[in-house]
Design goal:
Elements lengths: L1 H14 L2 H18 L6 H18 L20 H16 L3 H30 L1 H9 L13 H14 L10 H6 L3 H21 L3
Helix pairs in contact: 3-4, 3-9, 4-5, 6-7
Length: 208
């Protein structure tokens, strides 16, 4: 039974590999162009910008495969980069004003990321072992905790856990060097590209 579950999981992981996700991204852009019949709505644009900002902020704490990121957004949620992308996709969909497209996008990205995150976290567990499992016990995977980690009743136990996982003080502070190294600026470039695309498509629809 376990072998069958492992094979099934491996199949879905291969199915949602890098190439497939790239195809899905282009499919999303095409669908966005089809549904963008009006100028983008402000709430959707705001959520998209929030997602880009979350990705930018997260990139300043990420040291890939070297040390577990535990500072900034990583004290709230284990996968803030994926959450940021999710916000950007949902925000862009919301800006079209089409409820069906918004719900479909939200469900599709949630389903894809469920598999992608499982694969990513299995890799991190192999790399960091017990320290990562300890971190997983304290910090949610995708949707952030309801209360900030500095709330008195949470801060003591959480801070002890984060120190065990990564005791480097620099890991608690945003690094512009790491942000540049991780190409954090691409988050805002993507946001501007989406915004320009939405306005362009809405303008073109007026002539057809």
């Amino acid at each position: 039974m376990e072998d069958r579950d492992s094979q099934k999981k491996g199949f879905y992981q291969q199915l949602l590999g890098g190439r497939t996700r790239m195809i899905l991204a282009w499919f999303f852009v095409v669908a966005l162009g089809i549904w963008s019949r009006q100028s983008p709505q402000v709430p959707g644009i705001a959520l998209c910008f929030l997602g880009a900002s979350l990705r930018f902020w997260s990139s300043g704490f990420l040291r890939k495969n070297a040390k577990l990121a535990v500072g900034g957004p990583y004290a709230w949620v284990r996968n803030p980069l994926y959450l940021g992308t999710y916000f950007m996709a949902v925000g862009a969909s919301w800006s079209t004003g089409n409820l069906i497209f918004l719900v479909a996008t939200s469900l599709l990205f949630a389903a894809v990321y469920q598999v992608v995150i499982a694969e990513e976290e299995a890799k991190l567990e192999r790399l960091f072992g017990q320290a990562y499992l300890l971190y997983c016990e304290q910090v949610p995977s995708f949707f952030p905790r309801l209360f900030p980690p500095r709330v008195p009743c949470l801060s003591a136990s959480l801070q002890k856990v984060l120190e065990k996982v990564n005791d480097e003080q620099d890991a608690r502070h945003f690094s512009w060097f790491q942000a540049w190294r991780n190409k954090a600026y691409e988050a805002y470039l993507s946001f501007l590209g989406l915004l320009a695309f939405l306005y362009l498509v809405a303008w073109l629809w007026k002539w057809f």
